[in-house]
Structure formats: structure tokens, C-alpha cells
Amino acid sequence: MDANELLKKVRKIEIKTRGLSNNIFAGEYHSAFKGRGMTFSEVRQYQYGDDIRDIDWNVTARHNSPYVKVYEEERELTVMLLVDVSGSRNFGAVGVEKREMIAEIAATLAFSAIQNNDKIGVIFFSDKIEKFIPPKKGKKHILLIIRELLDFQPESRGTDIAMVLRYFTDALKKRSTTFLISDYIDHHDYQKALSIACNKHDVIAIQVYDKRDAQLPNVGFMRVMDLETGRDRWVNTSSAKTRQAYNKWWYQRQQTMTERLNRCRVDLASVATDEDYVKALMGLFKRRGTR
After folding, report:
1. For residue 95, what pLDDT is reported?
2. C-alpha 252, offset from chain centre
3. Cβ 99 vs Cβ 83: under 8 Å
4. How confident is the model over 44-89, as pLDDT tens digits?
5. CB within 10 Å: which end of the chain, N or C, has fewer?
6. Which of helix, strand or coil describes residue 5?
7. Residues 163, 126: contact at Cβ < 8 Å?
8. What is the DSSP letter of 223?
């Protein structure tokens, strides 16, 4: 992609996603992902009903009457986007390519974070860490992220979610709200890494998939390529047995993914490339905002 074409795409996605974050997501994002931590604010005299564990004994001793510490919720968040840039993101049979939808979803979340005065950072991953953009604030930072989302060229094509979760858990010392955006086509077991990450961070899963990932069309012999390994083969899609086996594989893979996320109490938004991701994100925000 040349510089002029990239600039046009960046501008187009900026206008669309900033409009969404400003007009639709503003309130929903804030209520869904408000600060989970508590910071010390002040001390005041003890009142009936206060928790005795909040008594500040040093101040109490000085004033010869009980004082308690008052805490307030941390409003500023660190938001991290873990973005899958493996080979399978380039697939696009129904609707747009996965990479295009992933870029728009990530950009919308980034603008929502900035509007809420949060820091935003990104880790691009395949079966290795491709790039780490540390969390910062500001429009200039957002535009850098969007450019990378649109034009980043990974070195590898595989997927390893467990690896990126381990790296992320070690790299980010402060608790963060983390969106793991992927098609979740991964043959590794990431359960343990996810559990450890969730003990430290608030992890949210966003799955972007193509409906051809889930179901083969009945179109006779079709050449099928694995975009992550480069291997291809001919498949007889006219065979009902072949289509049923493929559907079963997809169903079992989805079940495994859902079970892993549920065990760690990770919220999931799953959206197909021919569907409206705005509706999926709004549903996710509202579910979290009502807790």
C-alpha cells in the first residue's frame, strides 16, 4: 500500500470510528469499563456505619478521635489491544476481510478509550510477538495505531494466543482492560495462560470470523488453502459427509473456545465479517454495564 492510499484509508477509518465512539459508545464504554481500582482520596471523621478496617490509626491518635480513609474509584484506565495478525486474518469470502473488520473494531475501541481519557496500547501477535506499542494518550498516538492496524506486515503466519498472553502478563505491570481480538483459530491450549492473565487484568474476547470458516458451500471440488501454513488441498464440497465433518470441526472448536473463556469469566463478543460489529460491541458494553 503506497503512502497516499494508506493516508486515505487512515482518514476514512478515523472519521468512521471516531464518529462511532463519540456518538454511540461514549456512555456505554464508560459504564462498561470504568476504573476497577481504588485510590486514596482523603480522611474524615468516623461516622456510624463506616468500616472499622478503614480507620487511619495515625490520624486518629493525633486527633484523639477516630478518622477513616476515604477512597475513590480510579477513572483512568490502561487499555490494551492484543491484535491477531496471523495469516488467517486475510481471509474474506463472506463480507469484508477479517483484517479490515479487526482494524475498525480496534480503532473504535481506541477512540473510545482516548475519549474517556484512558491510555491505549497495542500488541500485534502471530505465533510470535510482532510489535508492541506501549500505552499512551492522544490523537497522534491513535493515528499511529490505526496506520499500523491497516498496513502492518507480520513476519510469521501462525497463531499462538498462549504466547501473547504470557508476554502481555509479564510486560504490563499495571492492571489493564484488555481486548483480545482474533478469529481464535489456534491449535494451542491457552487455558492456563488466560487464567493467569485474568488474575491480573480484565480480559475481554472479541472473535471476528468469516461464515466460510464455519460452513463449506456445496460447490463441487474446491481448492482450500491454510493461510497460516501455506498448505492447500482439493476438497469435494458436494459430499454431505465432508460438509458435516467440517461443520462438526467448527462446532467443537467454538465449544472449546467458549468453555475456556467461561472458565476464566471472560466476556465474549463474536461477530461475522458480514455482520454489524457495532451491534456486537453495544451488546458487550451493555452486558458489562449492568453488573
Report:
1. 64
2. 23
3. no
4. 888 887 878 888 898 899 899 998 887 655 557 899 999 999 887 6
5. C
6. helix
7. no
8. E
